[in-house]
Design goal:
The structure is a homodimer of 145-residue chains.
Chain A: H1 2-14, H2 22-33, H3 40-47, H4 56-68, E1 72-77, E2 80-86, E3 91-96, E4 102-106, H5 111-121, E5 124-135, H6 137-144
Parallel strand pairs in A: 3-5
Antiparallel strand pairs in A: 1-2, 3-4
The structure holds a DNA duplex (30 and 30 nucleotides).
DNA sequence: TTTTTATATTATACTAATTATAAAGTAAGA
DNA sequence: TCTTACTTTATAATTAGTATAATATAAAAA
């Protein structure tokens, strides 16, 4: 299933002018198999066993390439590291303020918000971002003890 | 009107253990009068005439204090500088990807999204963030010429 | 298959936002 | 007014991410 999504992503890249390299394949594979929305550094650490000479810059460069190709999404968090997500059908994220855990949350896209914003502001709207903040079940328990 | 909101904020601070200083007053005043969602550096530059010895750290420290007191909100943008907003009634932001302009966008709070997320994920939800991305009218024009 | 060449990777240095630290200053309660 | 805990300042440190230039390599052409 996730194999299939990875293959789709690889095909999408092939249709652009983006070359496939072992590093790129490994980064994509890790991202598509991971359910954890990793940071660039997470990816770097996860792959340094297989690619002892890989540079962090390579991870950042390739994540940017993937973003431009539309197969990876960046989630930014101020001073903290960005997290990366494979692009899938519409879902949002619920984030734990205590432990940083990110959980996918399926919800119909808020298209009407985009349309309304266009009318009210005169902008040409192309996307939106929504995130929900709270405390995950595990961290809730901890507070109680 | 904005005088009134500023006064409310000052009152809110008085009820906590937060001391009032000239720097703090000036930062708050600037933030409440500004319609531009300034960065910490914007604030620093705007006030350095009146406070030639003020340190950037003071701006950051106090913005954090205000955030903790719940009268100021931070909008984070990955590697780029955060922007700060006085906390007001529910509104969202429409952001121009070309020039960075931020426009307020009034919309009924998405309370039902929060409720649903609580049920589905088991989180205790306390807030959410939504932003709309696009191109502002001015930048749209530029592209056409 | 070999050659070619544009693109990718690496190592390193750099930038910019933000935070930490410690000394000096000051708001506000006793 | 005195005192003290909190603030400010100046400076250094930290950290995410980007730029650069030399080396390596994927993939198209011969």
């Amino acid at each position: 299933m996730s194999d299939h999504r990875l293959q789709d992503a690889l095909d999408a890249l092939k249709s652009t002018r983006v070359r496939m390299t072992p590093q790129r394949h490994a980064i994509l594979e890790f991202l598509y198999e991971s359910m954890t929305h990793p940071t660039a550094d997470d990816i770097y650490k996860a792959l340094e066993g297989r690619f002892p000479n890989m540079s962090v810059a390579t991870v950042y460069n390739n994540l940017r390439v993937f973003k431009e190709a539309g197969i990876v999404k960046e989630l930014t968090y101020g001073d903290a590291s960005s997290r990366f997500d494979s692009v899938t059908s519409d879902h949002y994220h619920v984030i734990c303020g205590d432990c940083g855990k990110i959980v996918d949350f399926h919800y119909p896209g808020l298209d009407e918000v985009e349309t309304l914003a266009e009318h009210v502001t005169g902008f040409k709207v192309h996307s939106h971002r929504m995130e929900i903040y709270g405390t995950c079940p595990k961290c809730k328990e901890k507070v109680e003890h």
